[in-house]
Amino acid sequence: xxxxxxxxxxxxxxxxxxxxxxxxxxxxxxxxxxxxxxxxxxxxxxxxxxxxxxxxxxxxxxxxxxxxxxxxxxxxxxxxxxxxxxxxxxxxxxxxxxxxxxxxxxxxxxxxxxxxxxxxxxxxxxxxxxxxxxxxxxxxxxxxxxxxxxxxxxxxxxxxxxxxxxxxxxxxxxxxxxxxxxxxxxxxxxxxxxxxxxxxxxxxxxxxxxxxxxxxxxxxxxxxxxxxxxxxxxxxxxxxxxxxxxxxxxxxxxxxxxxxxxxxxxxxxxxxxxxxxxxxxxxxxxxxxxxxxxxxxxxxxxxxxxxxxxxxxxxxxxxxxxxxxxxxxxxxxxxxxxxxxxxxxxxxxxxxxxxxxxxxxxxxxxxxxxxxxxxxxxxxxxxxxxxxxxxxxxxx
Length: 396
Ligand SMILES: [Zn+2]
Description:
By secondary structure, the chain is mainly alpha-helical. The protein has 16 helices and 5 strands. Helix content is 48%, strand content 6%. A 5-stranded parallel sheet has the order 3-2-1-4-5, sandwiched between helices. Mean pLDDT is 90; it is low at 1-18. Bound molecules: zinc ion. Zinc ion is lined by residues 26, 28-29, 31, 45-46, 48-49.
């Protein structure tokens, strides 16, 4: 059965204490009370919108000023990387943001990145093709780290059994941890990422998408529901890569897409024209698992539609109209046939029967609060980063 996500009514099939407030939709973007902590002003505009106009936009300069800044950063990266095979490292998934930043770094900024990819067992053929085309076209080196499947599968099963929204944590954690562990080990000073305000200025609230880097939560969920010891799985707590790697190892994170004009459609077209790179129907659908998670698990089980945050970002940055977004949201991300097919694929791959997976879907929803976590400490770190201007998006 497919529940239609309506832009104007509460879609959640599950009511939690925090979701009992009256339904409201922001009058400027499409975020709504499915984020239980959303706040509206007297105009009916939400706090993501207000944060964007007062905090992000005045500090974001994708123009001549940004261009001069990123060129000067690139000069420093080249200088510090002289004598090395590569002067920086970029983690790529095959999606548009990481592909485009790779292209910008190599072709426009004259950098010599090592392209780093983590194969966690869920790559779509399209993503693999896209990475290969990009690497060949730019003549870059690719390092692929393959995660042990029995450990990956066990950790993913544990997150499903834990009934939390953030079942993409094992995949996300592996990507980040493998990249930063590798960068530290091989003395890379610069990690370039595709993170950007243009498509991500509205971040999903933590209740939808908890920190994948909270190692304490990952280990607690694995301890309760896992069976296979994590011997080789890439692990790194948030403090290791936010504090130790940055302060002690001196790794700096650069987000080039915030310094230049970056428009999703135009970027995909540029990649398609130059590298025969293939477009995706939705952001983050480069992995079949991500498609299941965003198109099925989150909306059907929890009433969280990640498209809301993504479309809201595109509305604020003038890449989509609000009425187009509401129209898209009024229809599910997937047709019933694709969903059934994905459900069966995910069940088989994770060694659940389809019935077992459907029972899990129907089980009691949990949140990150229900398991050990380091949220208080992470909040403290986020406040410090916001105060210093490093982090400007709302994270709650
Ligand atoms: Zn808003």
